[in-house]
Amino acid sequence: MRRESAAAAFLPSIDRASPIPIARQLYLRLREAVLAGTVSPGHRLPSTRRASEEWRLSRGLIADAYEMLIAEGYAIGRHGSGTYVATGLPAVASGASAQFGEKEGQPVRNISVMAAEALRVPISLPQLPQVAFVTGRVIHDTRTSRLLERIASRHIHYSRDGYDSAQGDAGLRSAIAAHVTASRGVRCDASQVFVTSGAQQAIYLTIRVLMSPGDTVILEDPCYPPARRAFVLNGARVIGAPVDKNGLVTETLVEHKMFSPAVIYVTPSHQYPDGSALPLTRRLQLLAFARDTQCWIIEDDYDSEFRYEGHPIASLQGLDTENRVIYIGTFSKAILPGLRVGYVIVPPDLVPAFSAVRPMLDRFPPSFQQRVIADFLNEGYFPAHLRRLRESYRASRDMLVDLLQHRLSDHLIVEPPEQGIHLTARSTGTWKNDKQFSECAHQKGVIVIPVSPMYISAPTQDKLILGFSGLSEQEADVGTRLLVKAFSTNAKKSVST
């Protein structure tokens, strides 16, 4: 009689209720046994007849599973002898578990310095529920929704698609150039526009083109956390420049001249998180500093479409005569964040460098979303849409400010912002530790973002960010009542500690 190996005792687990075919399940169980070393190299698998008796499966199913193993190199079929586990498999496959993860006695997995830093100080970007006072919500009226649906239906042609330009759809780039030229005073044409997956990818692309590890970047202090992390993860040396009620204090830039900064990152139209707008005199000082030090300026104009009082100040890029400003914008706030369409506009002499690096991030931006937005802009729907959205957000802003001043004036100092889709509230002195309060409010069911973690080196201040875009009257009413309860709970916690 032919001797049987230890593999004959192997009993695979099969779920007959699973939608996965039984032959496929058996193949996966056998493959796992080979990879884990449960069935050793060179051992003979049970004959289909014996396996059928032991495993209570048809011989045809078992033969199919064995053929899959042989086809992928996990087993070898020997005519007249049977099926054997392959020998010579890599040690990782034959002697150890193929599952990733740290186990006792296992060597530490090597990861990059960038990944290690990201794990050390992760960016908190949870999928926030649509509740008060989450930031970045976009809720369209019926007219805009129907327009987008109609335009989208034109471009669902799965049989007619292919690889596109890494720089982005030509029609969308032309529409973006026309839009920012008219609305923001940006000086550019379509050849200078690069379409990206939101503003964050635009920031990352710009860093990769303009900075080398060890270079210095000057950031507003406090600043937008994901931008700061992008610089840090790319090996930049971060220096904070203070912010006051008029934005970046440009007079302090001379103190950092000795560090030969490569880049200054600013949000001049609506400073994040404080909400101030950089006045013309400081814009000119900033441009002069960039000219004298030969550094680049990244202008993040993330929500410039939403100004409620007075006329918007022209973009920094539009004032730049030295071609040292890189302009970043996004449609996440003005159309839909889920479309993931942003853009970066670069000086003409930087186009070749951006064109060389852009395909390294992804081959090309998604065509479908670009075509939808291009038609929406090119057919003239965007200005009217923005007017409706602006009025809706203005009403939400005024409603929220009134409720906060009426119900929470003992705890919060609130002023209506002239621009943007969020407001920043300061402490009256009755509470401290905005991070602790944010956690308390979250437990009550409302979202407020603490500002203190956004500081770099300046003295921290306890402030809270509340979004109001897409905020309904009911949400504002319930949300502010919950904030009142949160302050009460937070006060009790502070006393107990």
How does this structure look, described?
The chain is of the alpha/beta class and 497 residues long. The protein folds into three domains: 18-95, Orthogonal Bundle (Arc Repressor Mutant, subunit A), CATH 1.10.10.10; 163-380, Type I PLP-dependent aspartate aminotransferase-like (Major domain) (Aspartate Aminotransferase, domain 2), CATH 3.40.640; 384-496, Aspartate Aminotransferase, domain 1, CATH 3.90.1150. Helix content is 40%, strand content 12%. The protein has helices at residues 22-36, 48-55, 59-71, 91-95, 113-120, 142-154, 170-184, 198-210, 225-233, 280-293, 316-319, 351-361, 367-378, 382-407, 434-444, 473-496; strands spanning 75-78, 82-85, 193-196, 216-221, 237-244, 247-248, 263-266, 296-300, 325-330, 342-345, 412-413, 422-427, 449-450, 463-467. The protein has an eight-stranded mixed β-sheet, with helices on both faces. Strands 11-12-14-13 form a four-stranded antiparallel β-sheet, covered by helices on one side. It has a two-stranded antiparallel sheet with strand order 1-2. Strand 8 (296-300), helix 11 (316-319) and strand 9 form a beta-alpha-beta unit. The radius of gyration is 30 Å and the shape is globular.
Describe the structure concisely for a colleague.
This protein is of the alpha/beta class and 497 residues long. The chain has 16 helices and 14 strands.
